[in-house]
Amino acid sequence: DHMKARASARTCENSTKDLTAFSAVISACEKAGKWERALQLVNTMMQTNLELDTIPLSAAISACEKGGEWIRAVHLFTMATQGSIALDTIIFDAIMSTCEKCGEWERALHLFGSMTENKVGMNAVSFSAAISACEKGSQWEKALQMFNLMEQTSVESNIVSFGGAISACGRSGEWEQALWLLNGLLW
Asked: DSSP label at 118?
């Protein structure tokens, strides 16, 4: 029994090391814009039954963002929702950012709305991605709604959320709303 326990502990320790190593390499691929390699590594993790978690998954989604591969990123996200991966703010932020940056603003807003359904907390990054999506879609009113929702839910706004809301208003010719936001930023 003692030998089995030690072998099990060693397997667990090796598994943790493998997960850490894969996560680090996938993150490096993401930073280098090597989305294909990041996806290959995710596939290898799944084929070797190595538990895929938030860190390598969100890094792979972000790698897809840098490559303009939003469909592949959505596929990874869908895989996560159907698997044993606990959806969290980091994964939602990564997929919303990918959709927003790749011009899929409506999908990004839908994902933002589904965070509540999935009992996932929203942070400044979540709101900023949603507001930037509104900007890309020339949805200045929705951008302001998101911005106001930030305050209502006690999420502190940041320069990205302000900038996105101001740009959304500016793109739509709503200069008075943009000025109102700018005043809020300055005072």
From this structure: T
